[in-house]
Specification:
The chain is of the alpha+beta class. It contains two helices and six strands; from the N terminus they run E-E-E-E-H-E-E-H. The chain starts with 6 loop residues before the first strand and ends with a helix.
Length: 97
């Protein structure tokens, strides 16, 4: 696990622990929340819209196709674990912005 504790490297993948706040005014990283990265999502938490928006936003940020971002745990929860495959971009930059 990284010093931050909310992301780690697993081979060529990044594994991220996130807390989501759907229905926000805009999609953005909002710092740490109980040791994991909090993301505000503009999408509502209905019919998978927030999950779809999350995958698309992370794929864009990491510069990978959407099929390289998968939700490993927490599909129906605000607490999620995701895997991003094939990006060299360091997740710590999400907080440093």
């Amino acid at each position: 696990m990284s010093e931050a504790g909310w992301y780690r490297r697993d081979g060529q993948d990044w594994v991220l622990s996130l807390y989501l706040q759907p229905g926000a005014k805009r999609t953005e990283a909002a710092g740490l929340h109980d040791g994991v990265l909090k993301l505000r999502l503009a999408a509502p938490p209905v019919e998978g819209k927030a999950n779809t928006a999350l995958v698309a936003w992370l794929a864009d940020w990491f510069g990978v196709p959407k099929n390289r971002v998968t939700i490993e745990a927490g599909e129906l929860s605000r607490h999620k674990r995701l895997r991003v495959t094939g990006s060299e971009r360091d997740p710590s930059e999400l907080i440093d912005r």
